Amino acid sequence: MDTTQLLKGVLDVAVLAVLRSEDGYGYDIVRRLRDAGLGDVGDASVYGTLRRLYAAGSLSSYVVPSDGGPHRKYYAINSQGRAALDSQAGTWLDFAGAMSVLLTTDTTIAPTNGENR
Length: 117
Fold this sequence. Notes:
By secondary structure, the chain is mainly alpha-helical.
C-alpha cells in the first residue's frame, strides 16, 4: 500500500502529536516523525503543514538564535492546537478501530439474490 496518500490525511494530527510533548523546529519535527515510524514523510510536506497549522492558529512560533548557523524557528502547540489534536485523535482512533475490525474479521456477506461473490 502506498503510504503517501495515508500520510496526507493524517499529517496535521501527526505533527500536532509530535509537538504535544516538546517544541521543535522543522527538521527536528521531520526527524521525530520518521523516528516514530513515518519514514515516508517528506520534508516539504511537513514544512507546509507547519505553515498551515500556524496560519490556522493551532501553533505558535519563536526564533532561537544559533551560534553555528542560521536562527531556528521553533513551533509550539497552543490551546487551540491541543483542542484540534484531541478532536482529530478521537476521529483517528474511531477510524482505525473500524479498519482493524474490517481487516481482522471475516466480513464476507452472503449473496442476496442468487449472485455468487
